[in-house]
Amino acid sequence: MSNLEVRPAPSLCGGTGRTGPVRDVQPGKQVPLGESTVVRRLLPNLGRRMVGAWCFVDHYGPDDIVDEPGMQVPPHPHMGLQTVSWLREGEVLHRDSLGSLQTVRPRELGLMTSGRAIAHSEESPHGHGPFLHGAQLWVALPGAHRDTAPSFEHHTDLPVINGGGLSATVILGELAGATSPGTTYSPLVGADLTLTAGTDTRLPLDTDFEYAALTISGESEVDGVRLAPGSLLYLGCGRSELPLRADSDSSLLLLGGEPFEEQIVMWWNFIGRSQQDIEDARTDWTTGSRFGTVHGYDGDRLAAPELPPGPLKPRGRVR
After folding, report:
1. Which residue stretches belong to region Disordered (predicted)?
2. Closest residue by Cα to residue 18 from 255, 235, 172
3. H/E element holding 285?
4. How far is CA 75 from CA 83, 101, 171, 300, in A?
5. Cα 181 → chain centroid
């Protein structure tokens, strides 16, 4: 998925710093995406840029798209990151400059590693279902892997942990001994948690990870904090378990990972380490080099926004 803001601000992320357990509710903002989709952008936000290597989170829907085109994101570039497509309802057709053509459906992992350069498009296919609901997430690649060869993975059989009214699908990384088949380049986890009414349980965590939880549907309590849909709760580090309660059926995404020690610059759809990295990527996309061509999308590709007037400098992980 693309950041479609015409004047994207640089996100200056990474760096050292750990915090103990906290309960910090982070506000999101409404951002238009394509022709008919509005997303809730939960990361980066005013208080926090990253959770582990997770550096971008959009939550969208549930949207009634019976009489709408649904998601329509034209071809656009990525560099230095992985994109994670996760659906609760609907379908998204992925095309990329490697020649991949794949429809991603609910509870299937669409994982694209941009590495040094890739381009892709995302759209609701013809004859799509009535609703669209899901999340798009980015993972920053560490310096040793940011120039890796681009790739796309589609996994339909993901591990599920069940017990105590909780069902946890491990999207990426490892949780409670269950490991996703998706390729990772730093210690992290992403999981879809479904809580049935009356759930009162505890989920084991890695004390070296920092975590955040975002609500997908319904209301639930995470470590005693009641969360409405579209909220993100930053939980900090040092937790061995996470208390979860629900009075009605609800669902969450749990994101975590070792705090990302590197400093990065994130602008538009690129992650680099310097202004020159970003300028070079923008020039290559504009001139039609490096990123390749997405074939089969009915429309023009996205033009790169203008760079901001000030310098792009990597700074710490939090504002």
Report:
1. 1-30, 296-319
2. 235
3. helix 275-287
4. 14, 13, 25, 7
5. 17
Check the annotation: does 122 bind a ligand: yes
76 is known to lie in a ligand binding site: yes
Q: State pLDDT tens for residues 193-208.
A: 999 999 999 999 999 9
Q: What angle do CA 246, 252, 253 make, to 5 degrees?
A: 155
In the chain, domain spans: 11-257
Whole-number Cα distances in Å, 279 to 1, 113, 132, 191, 286: 21, 21, 35, 34, 11
- Residue 68, annotated ligand binder? no
b/e per residue 258-279 (b: at least 16 CB within 10 A): bbbebbbbbbbbbbbbebebbe
* Topology given in CATH for the domain delimited by 11-257: Jelly Rolls (2.60.120)
Residue 250, CA distances (Å) to 38, 40, 46 in order: 22, 18, 27
- Residue 99 structure tokens: 């020649």
* Cα 78 to Cα 113: distance, rounded to the nearest angstrom: 9
- pLDDT, mean over the chain: 91
- The 3-class SS string of 182-203 reads CCCCCCEEEEEEEECCCEEEEE
